[in-house]
Amino acid sequence: MDKLDVKILELLQQDGRMSNVDISENIHLSPPQCLRRVRVLEEQGVIRRYAALVAPSAVGLDVTAFVALSLDRAQFKQVREVESVIRAFPEIVECYTISGDFDYLLKVVSHDLKSLSHFLTDRLMQVPGVAGLRSMICLEEVKPLSGLPIKLDHH
């Protein structure tokens, strides 16, 4: 990756719908060369996908919670099955394995506190292998999802 690739990524992170012509004008490169670079970034998996970022409250998802989840050590061999179930829950919009007292950190969205409670108690806690969880309710979104700070020298 070079400086032009980094600039392309910065522009696409700001506006994923930016046209190839606009990108090429911005970085002073011909449209065919620019398109070739974007295609290479896509093929290499640097650009995972393109998506619209929807405001949760605009679609009735007024509650966001971060949920720390721990697995039952006796059933730890079921970890991939648990992960498969986690991926299938649409309420879970992000999931990370973590170090420390818990095994996973989940970002969960819900319509209200009652539906969040129902999801956590009646669905997530019922997944075989889940031993416990701790939820933290998001009070305010201070910095929503943003682009990555890409640098050439990342070693």
From TrEMBL:
Keyword DNA-binding: yes
Keyword Oxidoreductase recorded: no
Tree of life domain: Bacteria
Record domain HTH asnC-type: where: 1-62
Transmembrane segments: none
Keywords: DNA-binding, Transcription, Transcription regulation
SUPFAM superfamilies, sorted: Dimeric alpha+beta barrel (SSF54909), Winged helix' DNA-binding domain (SSF46785)
Name of the protein in question: AsnC family transcriptional regulator
Source species of the chain: Herbaspirillum hiltneri N3
Biological classification of the source: Bacteria, Pseudomonadati, Pseudomonadota, Betaproteobacteria, Burkholderiales
